[in-house]
Amino acid sequence: MIEVVAPGPYATVQDLGRPGYGHLGVPRSGAADVPSLRLANRLVGNPEGAAGIELTFGGAVLRFRDGAWAALTGAACPVVLRGASAGMYAPFWVPAGGELRVGAPMTGLRTYVAVRGGVDVPPVLGSRSADSLSGLGPDPLAPGLVLPVGPSAGLPPIVVDAAPPPGDAPGVLRILPGPRDDWFTPGALAALCAEPYEVSQDSNRVGVRLLGIPLERARSGELPSEGMVAGALQVPPDGRPIVFLADHPPTGGYPVIAVLASGDLAAAAQLRPGDRVRFRL
Amino acid sequence: MSGGPGAGAPPDGAPVRAAGEHGLLVETGSLEVSHRLDALLRTDRPAGVTEIVPGPATVLVVAPGAEPGPLRSRLAAAARAARAPDPDGAAPGRLVTVPVVYDGADLDEVAALSGLTAGEVVERHTGRELVVGWLGFAPGFAYLTGLDPALHVPRLATPRTSVPAGAVAVAGPYSAVYPSASPGGWRLLGRSPMPVWDVAADPPAVLTPGTRVRFRAVTG
Lengths: 281, 220
Known about the structure:
heterodimer; A: 2 domains; six-stranded antiparallel beta sheet; B: 2 domains; four-stranded antiparallel beta sheet
């Protein structure tokens, strides 16, 4: 059991989400930065899809009632355990009663805490993810909440000492045009790639909202609602694109000018308000 | 890569657009064709497909594990098959009868807006079969198409902060049964005692795309 002493600004339980229910109006949800959650799980010998904790801007204090192996990945934070520094990207043992204190990241936004055995809250539609849009899954972490940890018997041994930390954030995200780039003026894709956009304060797990050159539509009227993918750059009438993340609605009525390359979705999920980001075709 | 306008559009009139590396958006042009294509793909699901999401004029297929070229050809062929007139007449979806207690907070206002009596609103709402077009807004929230045009009323100017689960409502050309409590701007005609969303059920939604729906007036 892990007791949440302090969750930091926003923390949730996440696994790989609920794929396959989009046609029933259910967002996929799951870790915003999937490769980081997978890595954290591998470091403690979990299946990659085990549930962990996704911290936003770090800042959490977690008390382990029982001893357990843990690992942190994603946005690098100072991590202190019993007065000593515990590193990122490496498995470490937390003794019973140990308190893990996670500071704020210097760069990046989301940090993942994996515990050997996985966070064992009851699954909903096959997933333990907290979906901020639909409310499915467990509530966000709050002080005093106790998270059960699954059994570690039968898991493979921990064989990795440390994983290389991720490189610097790319600052440039690759996009593929469409599916609705023909709803925009001929210069709109060029405008999207011309100047950096700034990440707005009202970004969240649904999407990264961007401030910058508005993208101009060539067509008026309404697009019939259609299926949306993670990484889609949806453009509402104000012309400012929103990059859809894990909790994006499964359907939407604003045209999508382009979609992020799948390899850059994790980097988008690490953008924090005030960051500047460029797009490249 | 050249990224001129229309780069994500179909290259040769084929009705399949790329939505990133793993998504293909098939243009169907109509809800009926969307439903037929959705049914075709669910019956004989191509390898690697994780999501099939029908909309009023499209079906989105997400397939992180598939070869895009062959899948694109397969979807184009399936879309052609779905567009062809059905020899047996359209195979109808399953029919669900939804009981409704017509005591909604907006029933009288909908009557006033539509120039009908409250009783006539109920008659119109129960008088024809509706079809689940697609789901969105919330898990299990089905947009029911085929509503009597007399009942096409605008949404509330100010949405309610909470609409209870089971509320039966109309807005624009659609009707819906709220699957769970949520904020909502649709006008409430009544409430249904029949749950339409249950995360413990498989599937969790009663009203799936293509399902035919008949409302029936019951007393509370």
